[in-house]
Design brief:
Layout (H helix, E strand, L loop, with lengths): L9 H30 L11 H37 L2 H23 L5 H15 L2 H6 L8
Length: 148
Amino acid sequence: MSTATTSRPTGVTIIAALNVISGIVMILGGIGLAAASTILPTMTTIDPNAGGQMALAGLLGGAGIAIGGILIILGIISFIVAWGLLKGKPWAWTVTIILSIISAVMGAISLAGGNFGSIVNIIIAGVIIYYLYRPHVKAYFGKQVHVI
């Protein structure tokens, strides 16, 4: 890492802040989903013939808890990536590029399905990828800069 010779670019700080915000949202969403999913199986009907409904409620409750747990883990990872971005860690640059590519692809799939709001996600991912490939940003992360 060559942060001794280059200071942190402002855009990197903004991307790290976005990671922190998304991490908070994922953790809170994961906690909320897991908490709501623990209540779901108890909300069954009194009808003795509703065994299938009870099993479905239990299955959905378990799935909600699992998805909530995954969201919490992703939120923690988002915090770690934000820290890596702020410290100029090369792995954080790589992870951010990979996640931005995944976000752009998922946005394109969503757009193909008719969700025109996903255009915003595609644009944001594209801007982040473009920005992270700027020479001064790559230098901050200690990545080799090729000048043509």
